[in-house]
Amino acid sequence: MLANTSLNNFVRCCIVVLVFCVSLITLPISTLADESIMDDTEKPAAGPRISIATEYGTLKIETFDPEITLRMEQGGKVVKLTDPQTKKTVQFDAVHGTMRLADQKAQALAAEFQFKRDKKIVARAWIKKSEPRLGFRDDFDKKYDPAWEIFNKAPTHISLTKQPGWLTITTQRGDLWHRHNNTKNIFLLKNPIADGGDFVLTTHIADFEPESDWNQAGLICYDDVDNYLAYTFQYDENQGGRSLCLVREEEAKDLPQAFLEVDRPLDGLWLRIIKRDNQYLVASSLDGQHYHITAVETWGNGEPLKVGLLATNGQSNADMIDASFDFFEITPIGKDQKRLFSDKLPK
Prior knowledge:
mainly beta, Jelly Rolls, 2 domains, 8-stranded antiparallel β-sheet, 7-stranded antiparallel β-sheet, 1 helix, 45% strand
């Protein structure tokens, strides 16, 4: 009897050991199999904090319940926050910083959005607004800044190697005048000076020889194709040939233009636009130090959406020529700004 009992106990022990060993082998395999079919974006977020840069600041999302899931879609442009218990989903636009509940129109993200379940906050999201940029400068050293948006881009007419260290735009037929709106390769930058602040735009046209109507290159303040102010060095037979020109449009309607004949050979030319409220002073320099005013005019609401550079032939069949820009710069100015010019305002 004792022998049978010992034998039974031995058999039971062997079975327990065998089951334990099998579990050690099978458990990691099953766990690995489950994980292998799950994408990282599908795993429950156990309180992570996510930060994504958007157009208006940094989108921040954090969760406080392991059941809440965060899924990034469309290459990170969309973030979906889902509560499986309530089956509610909030979709965030990670580009523009907006949010949308199911079947609702997108809306601006409030100071803080809270995702609740039974009055308990299980997740929250908010936009941390970016600090206003204090300006911008691009020296075109081997590349141009990715902040540029190129209107009607024609890559074959843009070069950073023809004149190393300069941005060279080869002019083509095209214009913003009236309803044409077909200018190529306008380099546009979202205005970095916030809340209608005053600024100075400057560029150095290091190499440009306009020879035919309407070869032109220079600076632009831009809202859209029907609302812009451009200050260019150009060729205009009606203005004596080479001249500095200020052109403005509001709602596709011409405003009076201003011209100043250039009666000497140039070895480089600096152009400048100074904005104070909705008044624009345009000026030029032969050395980058002493600026002379071409004109002072009003335009727009004092808050241009974009600023930038252009080089084009207007609505003419003039030969394509190169316009090379050494740099582009925008800086803020205040009421205590020192004198910007070496002459008086024109009468």
